[in-house]
Amino acid sequence: MGAWLRRTSRSANWAGVVVAAAVLTIWQLLVTLRLIGDPPLPGPIEIWRGFQELTVPGGGMWPAIGHTVQVVLTAWSIGAGSGCVLGLLLAANRTVASWAVATVDVLRSLPVVALIPIAILLWGTGNLTEVALGAYAALWPMLINTAGGARAVTPRLRDVARTMVLSRPATLLKIVLPATGASMLVGARLALSTTLVVCVVSEMLGLQSGIGNQLVLEQGAMQPARMWVYVLVTGVLGVVVNAGLIRAFRVAFPGIAGTMGRRGR
């Protein structure tokens, strides 16, 4: 336990912690002195009380978080997985890329938020709508970054594959994927953050569950402190899932951990 605490203390971003503490302190002072907010903006102390109210049994926070996390991870897995496969295909086959590039540019330019009413008309207000929208949002960042990373693999590595007489599947697994890992991480992180945003916005605009839905309910009930709790929980949730994703990629691609760390910042 002591060794774990020492490692954690050494790796912690203490400068960031000091800045966050300073922001919270200044925020509370401005609210207490009534220098901001009309009507008064809730301060960190009031938001903390709202957090305590929402985390008791029946408070509604934990089921909302569980729903959003489940939907986000499901949608991201579908969208990012599909984007990875399609990106590798576009990078490996110039004919497919020449036919598909215009379609990809048009589809990825469509604002996902504008598709929410259409998706609700097609599939209702259940989980299918949220998963479909989140997967669509996750598809394009993963596809673009994977394809770009695979195309950027140095010709020397491909020469190594030819020298070793590797088959195309073996070249993909042993040469292309490890060399593309850093670009895939960038795409996966962008896809995950986009999926989280789209799912929460979908919940706010008509779906019946999740953090976004609870945020709107607290707004309608004139509970600004509780509303801010859900806003901050969404941010913390994004940080947690992003950290887990980076850890997973470091396990999957141990040889490029340093590169991923530099690009991931």
Q: Secondary-structure element sequence? A: HHHHHHHHHHHH
Q: What's the CATH first level of the domain at 64-210?
A: Mainly Alpha
Number of helices, counting only DSSP H or I runs of 4 residues or more: 12
Which stretches of 5+ consecutive residues score pLDDT under 50? 259-265
Largest sheet entry: none
Helicity range of the residues?
over 70%
| Known CATH architecture of the domain at 64-210 | Orthogonal Bundle
What's the overall geometry? globular
Class inferred from helices and paired strands = mainly alpha
- Kindly identify the CATH topology of the domain at 64-210: MetI-like fold
Give the full name of the CATH homologous superfamily of the domain at 64-210: MetI-like
Q: Quick one: how many beta strands?
A: 0
| Strand fraction | under 5%
- Which value, in Å, is the CA radius of gyration? 22 Å
Mean pLDDT across the residues is 83
Termini distance? 28 Å
What does this structure look like?
- The chain has 265 residues and is an all-alpha fold.
- The protein has a domain at 64-210: MetI-like fold.
- The chain contains twelve helices and no strands.
- The chain has helices spanning 2-11, 14-32, 44-55, 61-92, 94-109, 116-123, 127-151, 155-163, 168-204, 210-220, 224-252, 257-264.
- α9 (168-204) runs antiparallel to α11 (224-252) and α9 (168-204) packs parallel to α12.
- Residues 259-265 have low confidence and may be disordered.
Relevant terms:
single chain, 265 residues, mainly alpha, MetI-like fold, 0% strand, globular, disordered C terminus
